[in-house]
Amino acid sequence: MIDQRERGVDVGQWASGGQIERDLVLTDADFARIRELIYLRAGIVLAEHKREMVYSRLAKRLRHHGITRFTDYLSRLERQPDAKEWEAFTNALTTNLTAFFREAHHFPLLAEHINKQQGPITIWCSAASTGEEPYSIAMTLLETLGAKASQAKVIATDIDTDALSKARAGVYPLEQVRKLDEGRVKRFFQKGTGGHSGLARVRPEVSALVEFLPLNLLASQWSVKGPFDAVFCRNIMIYFDKDTQAKILKRFAPLMKPDALLFAGHSENFSYISDAFKLRGQTVYTLAKK
Predict the structure, then answer these.
(1) pLDDT tens-digit series, residues 206-258
(2) Which of 14, 98, 119, 259 has CB 3.0 to 4.6 Å from 129, enough for a Cys bridge?
(3) What is the CA radius of gyration of the chain?
(4) Apex CA 250: angle with CA 245 and CA 254, to 5°?
(5) pTM of structure
(6) Active site (catalytic) residues
(7) Which residue in 134, 115, 97 sits closest to 224, CA to CA?
(8) What are the pLDDT digits (tens) for 83-95?
(9) Is 90 within any annotated ligand binding site?
(10) Is 234 assigned a ligand-binding role in the annotation?
(11) Any idea which positions bind S-adenosyl-L-methionine (predicted)?
């Protein structure tokens, strides 16, 4: 018998006569309201086909509060614009898909770039998720700069505070870490023993280079200052509409050094969004000369 969770059915749902029934009420109006709220709060554009995902993720918050209707949950949120629950709401609807050295072609380009720079290196990872990307950047700094890497810094930000907590801990399933080459595993990770068997932690020399901070790219003010030698903004713009993408790119430009690199995700193209940047290579941009 196939477990319902394997079919992507929430534990609070069950099959009946070929239909999915729910223990919580999510109306069309509720879904439209959720889409509007997460767009206003985080700039995230939720497509119509994301309805089941929204139900599954937010249902946990309703059950936590003992609420049975999404209408009541959303009304409570809107009555309390500064409530802590907004953080949980945003975290629930944020997608964290990442891996160590994801889109691997970027890291040799980063190494080549930082090797040419004079003085301390500062890099901003603007969608840090659970930490794999900023730690990959830190490992690249250590491999490239050696002892000089101690003067470098990776500022890693994300809107999802739950993801940031996991990132700060720097602990990952060993199977995930083993996907790296053996040399990197030995140099940059500590394997867990006893109760931590099956886990690996990034070594202190890696974590010391990374500072994790909460940051909403839609906020009127950012807590990061620059100037940066490189900015990683990979696989986050796909969740924003073009107007939001353009506004964010416009704000990136003054925070970057004249020869800084901007790294985008494999399915993102900034050339049609902003004239502040020009394409240098495969999903890598530099500031356009004025």
Answers:
(1) 999 999 999 999 999 999 998 999 999 998 998 899 999 999 999 999 999 99
(2) 98
(3) 21
(4) 145
(5) 0.82
(6) 57, 158
(7) 134
(8) 889 989 998 998 7
(9) no
(10) yes
(11) 96, 98, 102, 133, 158, 216-217, 234-235
